[in-house]
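Sanity check

After download, print the first record. It should look like this:
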Amino acid sequence: MASNNVQDELQVLKDDVAKLRSDITGLVDLFKDLGVKKVNETRNTLEDEFDEQREKLRARFNSARERGKGVVDELEEHVNEHPLGSLLTAFGIGYILARLSGGKS
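Expected structure tokens:
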């Protein structure tokens, strides 16, 4: 009878170990799935942030380009209105830069 009782307890223990093994496998799979989900969420968040920053940069670039175009248009208008003064100013600036850079006069 004692042998039968030990056999029963051994079988219960084996069943418990098998159940524990199954539970651990389930937990590992759950953690794996959660990890993959978290990685995907993080990647999506980073992609969204990257897209947002790229759009902001594009907007700033376009704004700077428009301002630059405006400055060039104003300069062109000024040169057209005052051609001789613009020529003398350009010559003077060129002369000063040449002197500062060590050019001979």
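If your output differs, re-run the checksum step. Summary of this record's structure: The CA atoms of residues 74 and 80 lie 10 Å apart.
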